[in-house]
Structure formats: C-alpha cells, structure tokens
Amino acid sequence: MPKRILEGVVVSDKGDKTVVVKVERTFLHPLLKKTVRRSKKYHAHDEANAYKAGEVAKIVECAPKSKLKTWEVLPKASA
C-alpha cells in the first residue's frame, strides 16, 4: 500500500528534529452543500531541522519514531 503524502504549513519548529504541520482539508457538507474546512496538526520528524514556522512542507507516513511522530517531512527541493 502506498504511503500517504500530505501538504501543510509548519506551525511550530521548537522541538529538536520535530515540526508540527497543520494540514487543512475541504469537503462538501452532506446536508447544507456548503464547503467546510477542517484542519489537523501532525508531528513530523525533520532530521536536518530545515523547516521554520510559516513554511509549506510535505509530510509522508513512516514507522513510529516516538509517541506522537509517525510522519516525516520530505527534504526541501533545491532551487
């Protein structure tokens, strides 16, 4: 089964080798037929401490690295 890849905004980079990424999803309300936004925060492993708060990051599923971390960030694309 392929690993899920999510994209979101880094809201915290205070932990060592850890970032908190806020992922937002939109869906259509079944009764009201209105677009609804929901967000969730994921703790992700950042080996190089490369991401800072406010940056957009892609995260991918991985084996559990700690109690909260089951995601890791994909390396930044070099421009």
The average pLDDT value, as a whole number, equals 95
What's the CATH class label?
Mainly Beta
- The name of the CATH topology is OB fold (Dihydrolipoamide Acetyltransferase, E2P)
- Spatial separation of the terminal alpha carbons: 31 Å
Question: What string, H for helix and E for strand, traces the elements in order?
Answer: EEEEE
CATH architecture: Beta Barrel
**Strands in their spatial order, largest beta sheet:** 1-2-3-5-4
Which stretches are low in confidence, meaning pLDDT under 50 for 5 or more residues running?
none
Largest β-sheet summary: 5 strands, mixed, barrel
Overall SS class = mainly beta
Radius of gyration, Cα only, in angstroms?
14 Å
> What is the domain total for the residues?
1
Treating each run of at least 4 consecutive H or I residues as one helix, how many helices? Answer: 0
Q: What is the CATH H-level superfamily?
A: Nucleic acid-binding proteins
How many strands?
A: 5
Strand content: over 45%
| Helix content class | under 10%
Envelope shape: elongated
Topology:
Layout lengths: L4 E8 L5 E11 L6 E11 L10 E6 L9 E3 L6
Parallel strand pairs: 3-5
Antiparallel strand pairs: 1-2, 1-4, 2-3, 4-5
Walkthrough of the structure:
Strands 1-2-3-5-4 form a five-stranded mixed β-barrel. The chain has strands at residues 5-12, 18-28, 35-45, 56-61, 71-73. The chain has one domain (5-73): OB fold (Dihydrolipoamide Acetyltransferase, E2P), CATH 2.40.50. β2 and β3 (35-45) form a beta hairpin. By secondary structure, it is mainly β. It starts with a strand and ends in a 6-residue tail after the last strand. This is Small ribosomal subunit protein uS17. Pfam families: Ribosomal_S17. Belongs to the universal ribosomal protein uS17 family.
